Amino acid sequence: MFLLWNFFFLFFWSNNKFFFCLNRFKFETKLGIQLSNAQARRIALGAQGFNNPRPAGRVDRRHLRKLVEQMGVIQIDSVNVLVRSQELPLFARLGPHPRSLIWDASAAGELFEYWVHVASHAPVALHPLMRWRMDDGHGWNAVDKLEARRPGYLDEVLDRIRVDGPVMSGDLDQRVGKKGPWWDWDDGKLALEVLFHRGQVTGVRRQNDFARVYDLTENVIPAEILALPTPSPDEAHKELLVLAAHHHGVGTLDDLTDYYRLRIPRSRPLMNELSPRRPAAAGRSRRLE
Fold first, then answer.
1. Distance of CA 203 to the CA centre of its chain
2. Spatial separation of the C-alpha atoms in residues 16 and 255, rounded to whole Å
3. Among 1, 28, 44, 151, which one is least packed by beta carbons within 10 Å?
4. What is the DSSP letter of 80?
């Protein structure tokens, strides 16, 4: 018998260190809490929804909402062996389900796509917590070169979407010659990706072929979400760390920061601010045989 905490996360932090002792087969914190590897694994699996039985009846968007609440993000990938890789987490937890669940939820304004972990589907309520990233520098040298070579081109692309409606990168294709490796973007694709990173446009997936269609953010994200106040970058980071702990169940600082792709040097002092307020949190319990 093992007591597994559903919606349980360990958030222990002391002296800026976690200890994961494989040779002693336990997870230990400076607060003296010890977990065996098996316990840590079960807590982590429970936090990700694997302690719940698959639905017995018809699977619908209510099940997707609960899953997204537990996982926080659904990573997007174009890899397609059986199905697109973002469909596999749903099947692992829900079993057979309508394959349009994610697309339908996105079309209804419940999910949006952004660089949350990597390219990911996430609940629109997370949008305010991503605005610091949208305002952050892109760090792409190719963008600086594009703006130097074609001043005002980003504004031209944004104006085209504003006037003509949603576009795909092929609508702006200006390539001359053969395409290079994966990240060999032409000017149109690069401009769309910069606008997407800045949050000025939002990507939605075309259902039949997975192509990303770019539209003005105000046409995709519900107005009530866009009207929410924007937290400071530090407050957004702290909330993302708490959410990461909730989704992980148990983990190190590396684990928590990686969930939403936060930088450790910036997150470490914020974790110290959080620890006196949130030494631990627990919720409903579930016993597994």
1. 14
2. 14
3. 1
4. B
